[in-house]
Amino acid sequence: MLKKWRILMCLGLITLVLSACSDAEEGSEGESENGEDDVITLEYWQYAFDAKVTLMDELIEEFESENPGIKIEQTNFPYDQYNEQVAVQVPAGNGPDIINLFYGWVPMYVDSGYLQPLPQDAFPHEEIEDEFFPLVEATKLDGEYWTIPTSVRTLALLYNKDLFEEAGLDPNSPPENWDELQEYAQELTISDDSGRIEQSGLAWEPSQQGHHWLRDGLTIQNGGQVLSDDRREVVWGEGDAGLEAFKYWLSFPAELGTSEVGFYTDDVTAFMTEKAAMNVDGSFRIGTLKKDAPDLNYGVAPLPGNEENSTGASFWTNGITADVEGEKLDAAVKFLEFLTSKEVMEKWLDGTGELPAREDVAMQDKYTQDEIYGPFIESLPFANAHFFIDETKERELVIDAADRVLLEDMGPEESFEILVEETQALFDEYWSER
Fold first, then answer.
1. Is the pLDDT of residue 7 over 70?
2. How far, in Å, CA of 49 to CA of 56, rounded?
3. Rounded to whole angstroms, how far apart are CA atoms 362 and 368?
4. 135, part of any domain
């Protein structure tokens, strides 16, 4: 009898324990609807540009407060390690859910299977093409938009007003055409008795914005074109316009002697430290100048033109990686919608200097009439974003072309011909596989 009672008691205790466990599990599930277990975590990657990283931290905090069920974790890599990290981590399933890419890398990422097209219900093509600047179409491939930018950038001429005055030049009248740019660069260059440059009239760095200036600035200003309308043929070498632009570009470090590669480390450092009087740079540099050179007395002007007005344009753009699906995909879309909102675009301009990608946001009077941002925005209607097959390789080809002339004494005609041929080979390889 006692034994039977003990068995019944044990069974009762077991029942109570199981019931309690069940209640606890049900309670846990109920709590997880708003608790940590139900939070969707997204990995966001962008390269390590200080102004952008700081601003993104602030934007993530704002987004998370408005969307308590979504958490964003930001990861950054140096620019020159970025693609390598993606190539290693994404195939292993350890990479980002949302990725910030230079637009010239997008074809390579699409071909590698790293991206998925933007859902058209959230990002209709008609809306993108109606509201964003046309240059964002550079990432439309196979009839799909794979990424969407918060901002765009144009190139302009940055010039040091104090150095202009010291050289007897009007600080409110920067050069407006090719001839004036050469003349000003010479007036602003100071060399010692041995001919060594102490102050560069025009900073010149092909690996920075120099290759963009050559392609989408000088070549088109001179009446030329780099690619055919279908983006399959490199027509850079047709006629004399491309070669003349190449020679003009090289004239600053060559016969004019106003510039040299690596002067004071690079063009950005030279300009910030007042060792270079002028520099062709992008609107994204404004955030850096505000932070690192707050006392620099500089102005901004549209790129000096020639037969046509043209400037190089580029942008960093956000995409969703291929394996994101379900609730994560919904959350990723929501974050991209946030990043491309009017409010975020305005904050992005104020924090980084990059221009809003939506036309109605950028063309507000408070921006177009601004003495720093205005000249960049003024250039947007004639801005060109080159369609890159492989931005890194195409940049290297331009650097090699310059080195052949400046370091190996090859004639510019021969070096430019090689540049065109090697660029066409890249495009042939790309299109043959599509």
1. no
2. 11
3. 7
4. yes
